[in-house]
Amino acid sequence: MLEALREPLETGQINIARAARRAEFPARFQLVAAMNPCPCGWLGHPSAKCRCTPDQVARYRGKLSGPLLDRIDLMLDVPAVAEADLSARGDGESSATVQARVAAARAVQLERQGKPNALLGPDEVDRHARPDAAGAQLLKQAMARLALTARAYHRILKVARSIADLAGAAQINSAHVAEAIHYRRGLAD
């Protein structure tokens, strides 16, 4: 069933063909998903014991195909939060501050290319998301070391462009590329 998401994630459309009829529907959406690190859910938890074998963990993670994962831009490992940290007041940025930075980054994207970075095609990525020399070298090394696909290459550059926009940087540098690669690694760790 999850594999049915591949086409709409890639194209923003879904095509349904039945008998002699064919219909096309818009399907642009933002996918937010979560999964446990293993079948029992305790892998990597500091105060609990995982009872899963490496084989069980591999089978569990294998339920998500490479082609589906290749279409997901950001994959983060979110560790368990200690009880003391849950009740403590954080020192992070306010939602209003983050919202203003995101709105400014989006405005820059719309002015620069007429659409958000996520909707850039491969030629547009080459034009608007070209990293500096150090960033290009880092991406080249990551492509070889992590065996990334051409789709992953373009998605990393779009995410790096967004990271640079959020930082107010006109040029994508190696730090932006490194962060985008980090988000791409997902279940490989």
UniProtKB/TrEMBL annotation:
Top-level division of the source organism's lineage: Bacteria
Tell me the ranges covered by the Mg chelatase-related protein C-terminal domain, including all copies.
92-184
Task: Give one GO term, molecular function aspect.
Answer: ATP binding
Q: Which residues form the Magnesium chelatase ChlI-like catalytic domain?
A: 1-84
User: What SUPFAM superfamilies does its record include?
Assistant: P-loop containing nucleoside triphosphate hydrolases (SSF52540)
Checking PANTHER family in the record gives: COMPETENCE PROTEIN COMM, MAGNESIUM-CHELATASE SUBUNIT CHLI
Q: What is this protein called?
A: Mg chelatase, subunit ChlI
